[in-house]
Amino acid sequence: MPSVLLSPINSPEKQDMQTTQWFEGGERPVRSGVYERLAHASSILYSHWNGLYWGGLGSTAEQCLIVKDQRSEWQDLPWRGLADT
Predict the structure, then answer these.
(1) Residue 55 burial (C-beta neighbours within 10 Å; 0-12, 13-18, 19+)
(2) Domain membership flag for residue 58
């Protein structure tokens, strides 16, 4: 299993990012940071994992950081991070 890193906020184009596999929503990241989350209707949103819970969702990494301290009502959405290269 690849290690999971937090997503850089000023990353290159999304298609250039190497991501990990999708993890089931009940599985939790090892590290705090911003991750991609698979929302309903297959849209990808961003959320901050603080080690205890997922913060609010945003359409960009920057937006999710604004609401990172607000606990998301969707704690069990699938997620993925950047692959360690």
Answers:
(1) buried
(2) yes
Q: Establish if 12 belongs to a structural domain.
A: no
pTM assigned to the model: 0.76
Residue with tokens 């990012």: 17
Range of the structural domain that residue 46 is part of: 17-83
34-53: b or e for each residue (b if 16 or more CB lie within 10 Å)? bbbbbeeeeeebbbbbeeee
Any idea what the Cα angle at residue 81 is, between residues 76 and 35, rounded to 5°? 55
From CA 68, how far away is CA 63, in angstroms rounded?
9
Question: What digits encode the pLDDT tens for the residues 38-79?
Answer: 998 889 999 999 999 999 999 998 999 999 999 999 999 999
Residue 22 lies in a domain: yes
**What sign has the CA pseudo-torsion 62, 67, 68, 74?**
negative
